[in-house]
Predict the structure.
Amino acid sequence: MALLRRSARQQPTPIDGIDCLYLDLDGVVYKGPDAIPHAVESIRSLDARAVYLTNNASRTDAEVAGHLASFGLELTAEDVVTSPQAAMRLLASHLEPGDPVLVVGGAGIVVEVEARGWRVVRTAAERPRAVVQGFHPSVGWQELAEAAFALQAPSADGGIPWIATNGDWTIPVAGGIAPGNGTLVSAVHTAVGRLAEFAGKPERHMYDVATERFAAASPAMVGDRLDTDILGARRAGIRSIMVLTGVDRGASLIGADETMRPDHVIEDLRGLAEPIAPLRETFERSTGDTYFEVGTAAVRRSGIDITLVRAGARPVDTIRAACAAVWTADRAVLGLRISDELLAL
Ligand SMILES: [Mg+2]
């Protein structure tokens, strides 16, 4: 047993060599009003600097920092990167000091526009030089119409830049799932027939803002969504860690497109500092089957069939074994028969 323990300690952790850890918020640090179990103490014990990346444009960096501090985290507004900040980065080359910017959205965008010496306007009649659109509960038809009026001309015909903070179709709020910024951007798109440029995840701009701000040499991203957090990290060329405390679960990970597969998967944030359990792959010559084992979990690939042989003590071990079986197969996910037990993970 002592030998086993020693060899386990020699395994690297998901954040070995990392100087900056970028964290998504919803589904990683908190869910609704509550902190996710083990998240706060795991972040507090990190050796790496914690930086928080949020696609939600409705709050300022200071408001987000205040919210996180209420859970017991130590941080300042500088440790928060918002999608409006990434939007400003995209606008910088287009604007001069004092230029008017039409804002569709709330304080999260307004403070960033003003901090750069640009002027917030709310109507097309004020001849804005750019439109920035982000979610805020107050956004209504009048603002969407003003944005559409300002964006009538395509950019190829001298039209002004249109930056959307993020493209999330939905946003979870206290009452349920509501239309998100992507849905509202789509309403303007329908009116003007041109496409917005997106600043937030899964584009790489927020990761670039964070990496520049902290001169990060070796950052990693931890997130709960494959199509935003992990895809964005992959595009930014940084290490990616999926945590199973939020939206995406085992089944979506097993079936994930190659572009959205994370480097590591952990059950909750305690996994950041835990040694990665080794993956063992065994080819059985007599049957042509391949076995994938993590901890006590075992998954078999036999032709196109992927089946559970033995569930692991921890679901994450079974998920990792199943991912290995599917991701190393010589055919696409849709060409495989994955057993229901694995798809229920
Ligand atoms: Mg999330």
The chain has a mean pLDDT of 94.
